[in-house]
Amino acid sequence: MQAAALLATGLAAGLLAGTASCTAVQGGLLVGLTDRRPSGPEPDRPAAARMVIGGFLLGRFAAHTALGALLGWLGAAVQPPPAVRAALLVAAGAAVVVFAEVLAQQGRFPGVLDEGEDLAVRLAEYVADRLAAEGDSPV
Question: pTM here?
Answer without folding.
Answer: 0.44
